[in-house]
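seq:
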Amino acid sequence: MLTEQRENIVAEIESRRLELNLGLLNIYNIYRIFIGLALIAIVEQTFIETRLGSYDRPLYWITTLAYTGTNLILPAGLRWLHKQVSSDQTLNLALVCIDAIALTLLTFASGGITSGIAPLILITVATGAILVTGRTATFVAAVASVALLYEEFYLGLVGPVEADFFQAGVYGIIYFTTSLVIQRISRRIRANEIKTLTQASELADLERLNRQIIQRMRTGIIVVDPDDRVRMHNQSARALLGTDIGEPLLTLPSPLQRAVKHWRGNSNHRVPPLRVAHHTPEIRVNFSAIRSQNTAGDVTIFIEDTGEIQRQAQQLKLAELGRLSASIAHEVRNPLGAISHAAQLLNESDALLPADQRLTDIIINHCSRMNGVIENVLEMSRHKHPEPQVINLADNINQFISQSAESFPDAEFSVDIGPTETLVRVDPAHLIQALTNLVDNALRYSELNDQRQRVRFEVGVEQGSERPFLNIIDFGIGVAEDQIPRLFQPFSTTAAGGTGLGLYITKELCDANQAQVSYSRHASGGSCFRILFSHPDRIAS
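struct:
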């Protein structure tokens, strides 16, 4: 993975270098045109005496005009040529070598190295060290040095001027030194560029990873600037603040703005739980300055649903209470069994009077009822830790209805499913047990009202929080207003012979799976119990 990433970075740097070389070639070509025109102008002017073209004027003019003319027409095809031969640097190498040879010819035509053209070759060698990478760049310096030495040697053979090999050698050393220095600098720049781009790529990957983690977190996170404008937020923050899907969160709600303002004024201020709107959950907020101790700058806001915290605390309390209840149930069960057994034996006595037999029947009935309560308490204490799975709610409801139809052949089930792919994270066994309790109640009270066993299921997803829900609706007369506050309390029942633990156990099962069960009166007059599941992406703890 790292090798592939480095190869991509090197390829990107090479692409950038080629683009940079093309721009540099354009600039260098302008310089060459300027040099060609300057060499023509200097020869033609009469104000200053010069040695340019003094030895072989025809060669000087041919070389200068060819050099300048080529430079004038080169820009038109430079980009095309660059694309055709840039892979092996042939174009760059050819151009600088031609320049070195052309300037050497001009040096020869002007009477040798003392004419002043040799320094121009140094610029060509330096440009070649930039345009050509690797050892090939040294070839340019070698061509320039050898050409200059040969020019002096040949001039000494055929011309009247004495060859100056010492000065030519000095220029050769300068050419090689300049080329090597620029090559070294180029390599260091290239290595630093690779390192910088590698670090930038790693930082970009890390930023993307952080954003993914933040978006997946169920804790709401908002980052605001010094003017309390939202710079970044995750989906959990939108859900807890009740922001509609697709609506941008640009500013903070008023209660949260006031809380941030108070905290900026006093970082030790602890904001009490608040609610931004009537339809949103109660939240607890914490603040942290992005730059240490700079409360006037950017601030990160952490938002948590207090209901989750309360449910966790309640779960611990109820776990202890469950263990205590189980211990009491075990202690009560043995004497209760003895009482029930003695009452049955007494009821079978022939000497028992009818009035006394009625009393023994009462004892037996109430012993049976109490035994049912104990069974429920023990069953509740034996609940294993939930093993949540992501399941399709619609499929499970249809499967539950098929199984319930066997136990209640006269029952009428209706289903209204919103998204067919509504996913929930829940323990399937706990869900079945909770549904059994709620459906048993719904069928019983529907039958009491109109002699028909009917129940309706509604599956959907809340718009604001994106949390899936399940409504179980009966066709009874509903729950009396004075009974609603005690609806999910243990041993609270209005049914004859009921234990009052069905709804309580249902609530415990929902809490254990980070879901909430609530009651409301349906428009038809019956009862509606809603199970609001946690977000399916939530990692249950």
